[in-house]
Predict the structure.
Amino acid sequence: MSDATAAPQTDLSAYTTLRLGGPASILTVATETQQIVATVRNAPGDVLILAGGSNVVIGDDGFDGTVVLLRTRGIRVVESHEESVVVRVAAGEPWDDFVAYAVDQGFSGVECLSGIPGSAGATPIQNVGAYGQEVAHTIVAVHAYDRRTGTIRVMPPAECGFAYRASVFKHNDRYVVLEVDFRLARSSESAPIRYAELARNLGVEAGDRVALQQARDTVLKLREQKGMVLDPADRDTWSVGSFFTNPVVSAAEWTGLGLDAPHWPGDDGSVKIPAAWLIERAGFAKGFAGDGVAISSKHTLALTNRGTGTTGALLDLARTVRDGVREKFGVELHPEPVLIGCTF
Ligand SMILES: Cc1cc2nc3c(=O)[nH]c(=O)nc-3n(C[C@H](O)[C@H](O)[C@H](O)COP(=O)(O)OP(=O)(O)OC[C@H]3O[C@@H](n4cnc5c(N)ncnc54)[C@H](O)[C@@H]3O)c2cc1C
């Protein structure tokens, strides 16, 4: 199998949802799984896997190495049971196309993840989640090329280290995800609705189920209102979604902080604090602007490129917000996207 073919342009800003990032030394497009493996195996220096470009911040100087654009496609049922199916999805498949397919087929378990940009293969990287669902609930295997051993491995969830916006794949270039297997229930109804805001908008109680399409439509509507569905005409969506994760502190730290903030207790006694609450109370309102960049006018957690921004300016804004929150509350904010060729 040959390596992937050269891409038309090497400016990485064309391939990120922030529309930021400098040149790549080599940029290739892989449309078949074997091409991904061959290209990664034969690349002369550093390799960057890029799919939807919706969770990366790439430095203005770009990437000195080979960028592999994942454009593999394919969704197929590999196991069919009376009550469930296992669906295998190619890494480059657009995530929301897969969700739409599942809803259409009457396969339940990913409907609340509607509208999330990017590829199916990137969802295990940070255990993508929203509105009470995360992919760790449905992934049964990740097929990955292991660059250390040069083999393709089928990794069960126990080997994936899934946690809140984290897994063994994040900040680790050992594995290239080639395909992902999801176990979905055969049902015209959603999984139990866990997220209070979504339940409210659906007019049901937490724990109730609704029709799959109704769950999808309501999630899409809520996400659109927050600028969380990509729209090229709306600069509030020129982002990586949430720039900061919600800080997780120990029970003792939480008590010590003495905050009158909304919070979610975790199973292990930890406490998750909404980053948006901290940012707003530290004095950074929606629309707070830097040089060509700004906090989205619809969502406090999204840092956006207004059209004339640079990665440098975006990170300056991120540092201003982080430092303001630290000064006011003594809580540290951490970036959710992967930073490439730049530091925070
Ligand atoms: C408007 C908006 C809303 C968002 N909402 C959410 C949300 O609700 N919940 C959420 O969790 N995320 C959200 N995100 C973040 C993002 O969409 C997800 O993290 C998504 O899974 C990233 O997919 P991608 O294909 O764009 O990955 P990329 O940005 O291309 O890559 C992200 C990282 O994963 C690596 N990577 C990508 N594919 C592979 C692969 N096949 N194998 C190995 N490494 C790989 C890359 O090298 C990079 O380090 C949002 C982003 C935007 C712009």
Summary: The first strand starts at residue 5 and ends at 6. Residues 17, 48-56, 70, 91, 116-119, 121-123, 125-126, 128-130, 169, 176-177, 228, 230, 237, 239-241, 338 surround flavin-adenine dinucleotide (CB under 6 Å).
